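ok posting inputs for the xanthosine-5'-monophosphate job
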Amino acid sequence: MIDEKIMVVDFGGQYNQLIARRIRQMSVYSEVVPYTISLDELRKDDVKGIVFTGGPNSVYLESSPKIDKEIFRLGKPILGICYGAQLLAYELGGSVAKAQESEYGNTRLFVEKSRLLRGVSPETDVFMSHTDYIDRIPEGAVLTSYTKRCPTGSFEDEKRKIYATQFHPEVEHTVEGQKILENFVLDICGCHQSFLKSSFIQDKIQEIREQIQDRKVLLALSGGVDSSVTAALLSKAIGKQLTCVFVNHGLLRKNEAEQVSSVFSHYDLNFIPVDASELFLERLKGVTDPETKRKIIGKTFIDVFKEEKEKLGTIDYLAQGTIYPDRIESGLGISATIKSHHNVGGLPKDIGFQGLIEPLDHLFKDEVREVGRELGLPSELVDRQPFPGPGLAIRIVGEVTREKIRIVQDADFIFREEIRKHHLQDRTSQYFAALSNMRSVGVMGDFRTYDYAVVLRAVETDDFMTAKASDLPPSFLAFVASRIVNEVKGVNRVLFDYTSKPPSTIELE
Ligand code: XMP
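and the output
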């Protein structure tokens, strides 16, 4: 049961999810909601505080997002950040002006007496990103900090429980940002730090049992973090009432199918591994267009899953490993970008179930991992890299063949092994080997070769919507290249992909 939360009201800024994450790091539940949310939602007792996020607009524009002024009568503490701070100033009788130049980047902040900034050094570095600035704070409020270029770094009105910062406390560059958010959430809003600390698992189990009772649940297990943790949690809650169907499409990483099978065959659930690799390969034969490949895989997956479902007789619920960012990406927040990725967990809802159960739909990825660890899942599953639903098919440019799958699996295995051995995991968010469709001439011993080129991809990213190539040492890459050409038959060249996203994407197809 979540009995306290901080609502992050989204005005379209790019760091909005990060605010919720920072608050959750304090073990306090936080949710991102659109600025069009009804006041009744915000009035509820479990809402202990509200954050207005940044956003790209100017408060003076007719079209810019605003909020019902009644919100100030709710008596809940409000923290406005950047645009949110300007909106507070504007709505409460202060004024906002346009600067000649934008202020962007790290700035020194001079701090005065303040409840929000209590414990923060008198001079501290903060991150600013704005053009408009607050030139007059509302009556009754006090100025609590400033920078050389910005007369209002922050202001507060304790009586009305209004707090505002022009800078972004949620980003890492604001050195004492977490302290400031803690002052708001723990001191000003008075939240207790009770979220997720093991109570999440107990509460969820209880909730699932009440919802499911003696009915049956089916889960499409992909072996990825989200569906694996969903399986482990459901198994604890309802044991054998859960059936997991694990469809091996033959496009998984090396040893992955065996690993997933060996972990889940020991769990208290019905585990049905289905090796459908022949069917997938057959349907992919001769297909080279990336979108067509994706569609074939998505459809085949549903066909196989449906067939298994038929065999099982009546099943009431479909379980899915949906997590919080998936919900945000499908239009919960206004700053969302919608992806149209195929996800093996993302089955259509109309395939004959009474209901849907998504026990992780309020958690961020790292929280899902934490729950997975607490449930005793092994690190190979819990700390797994993101892996696309269509699997290696979109890491093989052109037609998918058995030989190409073997090459990618082996090259990828070596790359991952060396990243781990060299302790480079922290320097890259996602890394893998892919196969270009290029063949070129090489020499091996006294012989000419005409073989494939493997592409190594390693990127750094927070949100996977933009990314840049990871900065891996050239000597390390040369070592991996040498291992791959020596150990993987059919490869005589290894290339490293330095392109950013955009204009490239992370996957090759
Ligand atoms: P792109 O290639 O679009 O990838 O830059 C962004 C992130 O999404 C993953 N990805 C997918 N995940 N189904 C998924 O579940 C898909 O069809 C899919 N395509 C890409 C990719 O691995 C990267 O993390």
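notes: The mean pLDDT is 92. The longest strand covers residues 95-111.
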